[in-house]
């Protein structure tokens, strides 16, 4: 009757949690249910399976419904945690489980692991700014973990101790500030991949229009609205503040005339310069002179 095992195990859990009514308890005892013995096998049998899993995976982060050899080892481990919290697990069993790195409190362990990965990232990068899907080298989803902590902060549910530890690592709690930092990260990522910051206006990363943002930064620079820090960070990525001028100065076109077809502003400037010469002057004779005057105007 294997299908009865999960139900019997559930009754045992309720018994240890003192959630069984006296009437149900009496009925279960009438059918000789032993609340100290597993319905599957002995404690040592389950422990052997737990040791096997640990040797193969080097941890005991096992889902509750995980089975081995037809036995629900995940649920068994959860029961051991419950017995441990209730003080109903012998010191001998505790010692055995701790030899294979038993996690008594999954929540506390997740917090510990997250902080360890955050600390390592901080030591390598000097901040905790990262992409939302960032994973550590060992596969830990640190980007998601950081997002969760930021949500807890926004909802005022984060502990003061955790906040202090993350503050010490330069945690950015405010989303607009985080978004600003993220845009700089994306710009750096683009630069590292392409070697420049000539980003198309419609270039998007994770719903962020990076091309539009960079164009806005150039406009703010021209108006003197960028902070020294913003200027320094972008210039480290070799940003070109005046793109039209850069393209003209670095164009391989022999004369400005072909370039005029694409750039109305430059065309108007060239026309002003040409007006200084007699109408019958040959373009070839004044090409270099016109170019130099145009460069000065730009």
Structure description:
- The structure is a single chain.
- The protein is 60% helix and 1% strand.
- The chain is an all-alpha fold.
- The chain has 4 domains: 2-99, no CATH class; 106-167, no CATH class; 175-241, no CATH class; 244-297.
- A two-stranded antiparallel sheet has the order 1-2.
- Helix 14 crosses helix 15 (283-297).
- It starts with a helix and ends with a helix.
- Residues 253-257 have low confidence and may be disordered.
Largest sheet: 2 strands, antiparallel
Weakly predicted, low-confidence segments: 253-257
- The SSE string, one letter per element, is HHHHHHHHHEEHHHHHH
- The average pLDDT score comes to 80
Output the structural class: mainly alpha
| Radius of gyration, whole Å | 34 Å
Helix content: 55-70%
Number of helices: 15
Overall morphology: rod-shaped
Biggest sheet: strand arrangement: 1-2
What tags apply to this protein structure?
single chain; 298 residues; mainly alpha; 4 domains; 2 strands; 60% helix
Summarize the structure.
This protein is mainly alpha-helical and 298 residues long. Helices cover 60% and strands 1% of the residues.
Topology of this structure?
Blueprint lengths: L4 H12 L5 H9 L12 H15 L15 H13 L5 H9 L6 H20 L16 H13 L5 H8 L7 H20 L9 E2 L2 E2 H13 L5 H8 L7 H7 L6 H5 L3 H11 L8 H15 L1
Antiparallel strand pairs: 1-2
Helix pairs in contact: 14-15
